[in-house]
Amino acid sequence: MERYPILEFNLEKLYNNTKIITNLCRDYGINVAGIIKGFGGIPEGAEEMARGGCHQIGSSRIEQLKALKERGIDIPLLMVRIPMMCEIEDVVKYSDICLVSERETLNMLNAEAKKQNKKYGVVLMHDLGDLREGVFTKEELVELAEYVEYSLSSLVLEGIGTNLSCYGSVAPTTENLSRLADAASEIENKLNRKLNIVSGGGTTTLPLMVRGGVPKKINHLRIGEGINNTQDLPLYWDTNIEGLDPDVFVLKAQIVELNEKPTHPIGQLMVNAFGDLPHYEDRGIRKRAILALGNQDLGDSSRLVPKDKDIIVLGASSDHTILDIHDCKTEYKLGDIVEFNILYQAMLMTSLSDYVYKKIIK
Q1: Residue 91, in any domain of the structure
Q2: Does 158 have pLDDT greater than 90?
Q3: Are residues 312 and 214 in the same domain?
Q4: 255 and 194, same structural domain?
């Protein structure tokens, strides 16, 4: 008997989505680094993204890049989290390029690259207001670029980049990306050469790109969600890209209880298992199903999108997810399987959970 919950991972759909996005970006003069951290770095997925036209494969976890390097993948590997000092040796050994914002980190990367007898690539990060990683002023960025170019002989300055929307929710715009483009041009003038990479963010830059708002100097994006979790594009950013398949990942969970119960808890309320006090709407007695799946696996049950559009996800505790199935046309039975599309957070969490079985569909 098959064990649940199951996260199905469809490699053909991942490949097709990758081809669509890389071809589209190429039309705008942009290369794609395919980001694999969102699905736990599953190697088969990384290989399909490489086959689908990505110029690099990237992750925030050096362990995932190490697994790919040891598997013999033939594509440059990009470390997209600025490195910890404790992992410098592995970063240089198992990746080819990393994002950097600190001078001391650059010094350590240079020393380690020299020790390993290799040239190592770096992309300097410029904070345009999202307030995550990056040098904050253009003047400091230009100075740091010159420092890498002329003082760190074992490093190669591949380019500059930025992060937008991930922490501060700052949207990519023509205005803020023009600041990145201007900084790139100034650095190129100082160094008397072209930069290979001017990286304008990730998936959240795609909507601006398809509307023609990304400056031509931007030639690189770091995209994971827009390939492997494509329902986020129309849901969050009102962007539909023809041909993208939302079913790269499908989550399946089993019903362990069916009952008719009130919709408002009975008794004095307090915070729930996660310290929250949710709002409960009293809709009378309704039919409910409980799944053997919870926020320990999902992060947040509101990131589930039932394939049966008559199902309402009411919420979850650590190990149980509660559904309203009162209006469903399907007559669900105990032991039946309920299928979901999943948004980014749920993809991230389920792909890493030891308690969610992974099924790769080729």
Answers
A1: yes
A2: yes
A3: no
A4: no
